[in-house]
Structures are given as structure tokens and as C-alpha cells.
Specification:
This protein has about 120 residues and is mostly beta strands. The chain has one domain. It has 1 helix and 6 strands; from the N terminus they run ββββαββ. The strands form 2 sheets. The chain has a 4-stranded antiparallel sheet. The N and C termini lie far apart (about 50 Å).
């Protein structure tokens, strides 16, 4: 493999997917070490690309959670195209969310607009 090639990730279809949520102003993963989002390389994460070619292992933490909560403010990771507008973490209503990985960022949005949430 050359320096410009990205290695293939492992087949994770044997691991169940889980439904991520926002609850009480926090991103929540109901999964565990057997969930798909808890399978990622056991390396230090200092690679330019992911997958990085290192062996995937089970982890206690969901790999998505630090990306969503990393900025410290859910609004920084929220895709407002779902019609929900909030400025502070505690303003985000509870609800199921989907997420999109975009190379160097992660965005979430509500699957269904939560009830009682004013839109623009």
C-alpha cells in the first residue's frame, strides 16, 4: 500500500447498530462493547486517515460521542436543517438523532422534529 492509499476498514456488520439520542442536553449512546460504534482501532489515533490500518478492538466508549460533544457545545455539532434551533446544551430537546461523519467533523440532527420545539 502506498502513502496515498487509505486502508480498508474491517467488516463490522456482525456488530449491532444502536439508536443514538440527545437526552438532558447530552449525546447518549445506549450501546456497549458489543455495538458497532464501540469498535475502532486500538492505536493512539494519531493517524491522518481512518481507517488507519490498525486492528479494531472493542472499547467502552462510543467513538461518535467525543466528536459530537468535543466542541463543548452541542450547537457546534448540530445540523440545523432538521428544524431545531438551540443555543445552549440544555435547550436541546430529547430525541433520537442521526449523525454524519465529514472527514474532520461530525454533525448530528434529529430524526423526527421533537414535539413542542419551535422552528424558525
Amino acid at each position: 500500500m502506498t502513502e496515498d492509499e487509505t486502508p480498508e476498514g474491517p467488516d463490522l456488520t456482525g456488530f449491532p447498530e444502536v439508536q443514538h439520542r440527545i437526552e438532558c442536553g447530552k449525546f447518549v449512546c445506549p450501546g456497549d462493547e458489543n455495538s458497532r460504534c464501540h469498535q475502532y482501532p486500538g492505536c493512539d489515533g494519531e493517524h491522518e486517515r481512518w481507517p488507519c490500518g490498525c486492528e479494531y478492538v472493542s472499547h467502552a466508549e462510543c467513538w461518535i460521542k467525543p466528536w459530537i460533544e468535543g466542541p463543548g457545545n452541542l450547537a457546534d455539532s448540530h445540523d440545523e436543517s432538521d428544524g431545531v434551533y438551540a443555543l445552549r446544551n440544555e435547550e436541546f430537546p430529547d430525541g433520537d438523532v442521526s449523525w454524519v461523519y465529514g472527514e474532520d467533523y461530525m454533525l448530528f440532527q434529529y430524526i423526527d422534529q421533537p414535539e413542542g420545539v419551535p422552528s424558525e
